[in-house]
Amino acid sequence: MSHGDLKPANVLVFRDGAGEMYAKLADFGYAGWAIGNTEKILIYPPRSRPWDAPEYHHRGFTVPAAKKLDVYSFGLLCLWLWFFDKPSLGALAANDKDGGQWPLEDFEILDRMKHEDTLRDFACSQVEATQNLSANEKADLVHFFISAIVSDPKERTITFEDMIILLGHRWQPGPASLDADQKEIDHSQIEFAVSAI
């Protein structure tokens, strides 16, 4: 399956009844999936700059190729979620050519970094500058970004299952139960009737 349009606007973040934060994907309007021969099915995802992968074009993608687009977009989305509001001093100094503009606030700069193929190095420098991570967590995150934000789709071989493992226990799938503010409906107790007004 391919979502087709992974970007911040399509991720809903909320707290459950216990106060834990969860993210859920939304807008599956461009999603595609196939059973059997996935090379014959074409998916036509939109161009959502800067979240689209470098190989994006307006022609259709096979399901395996669309999944690689999603891997890149998810890697970029994770980079943005982690660091969009907390740059390291080294990253700001390194990005001084943009007048001190933090690249994750300006989507044009982020798009340019994507096309210059500097996002992986940028992501790794951000991970290394993060002080509250263990050496193993840093190594896993560096591996995550090196594997996901790679310009050549042939080199982007990581699966979502492997990505989740590298993200660690805090990024495991959330509970399948209902949210605290939702109630399960017992459909056997619902009666429908037509009445005259």
Topology at a glance:
Layout: E1 11-15, E2 21-25, E3 42-43, E4 61-62, H1 63-83, H2 89-94, H3 107-115, H4 119-129, H5 135-148, H6 160-167
Antiparallel strand pairs: 1-2, 3-4
Helix pairs in contact: 4-5
Entry keywords:
197 residues; mainly alpha; two-stranded antiparallel ribbon; two-stranded antiparallel sheet; 35% helix; globular
Question: What is the mean pLDDT?
Answer: 75
**Helical content band:** 25-40%
Q: Structural class from helices and strands?
A: mainly alpha
Into which percentage range does the β-strand content fall? 5-15%
Spatial extent as radius of gyration: 20 Å
The best one-word shape is globular
Number of continuous helical runs: 6
Largest sheet: 2 strands, antiparallel
Q: Provide the spatial order of strands within the biggest beta sheet.
A: 1-2
Low-pLDDT segments, ≥5 res: 89-96, 176-185
Secondary-structure element order, N to C = EEEEHHHHHH
Give me the count of strands. Answer: 4
**How far apart lie the N and C ends?**
48 Å
Kindly describe this structure:
The structure is a single chain. The protein is mainly α and 197 residues long. The protein is 35% helix and 7% strand. Strands 1-2 form a two-stranded antiparallel ribbon. The chain has a two-stranded antiparallel ribbon with strand order 3-4. It starts with 10 loop residues before the first strand and ends in a 30-residue tail after the last helix.
